[in-house]
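Issue 218. Parser rejects a valid record. Input:
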Amino acid sequence: MKVRIQRFPPHQNAKMAGILMGLVAAVIIVPLSILMWAIRAHVQPSTPPPPHPPLSLFILLPLVYAVIGYLVTALWCALYNGLRRILGGFEFEADETE
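Output the parser choked on:
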């Protein structure tokens, strides 16, 4: 059976993508930033190190990543919905199983 995607709801898909991207960014950025601060505190370079970035930056980065993920996903969904009328949309084959 051929199936054609008629529409991607921009807000629903963008909401899910934004939340998932923010969570992934938090899982990666927060531990790495803590590790960076810990390592930097124990290293004694021969020249003075640049100042530490503020800790709030590492909390803000996942939020920014989530917002950008939301906006980009909403844009792509809206673009797909517009182009589907002209090009026909994504099509795939599926079969029913029990």
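Fixed in the parser; the record now loads. The chain has a mean pLDDT of 86.
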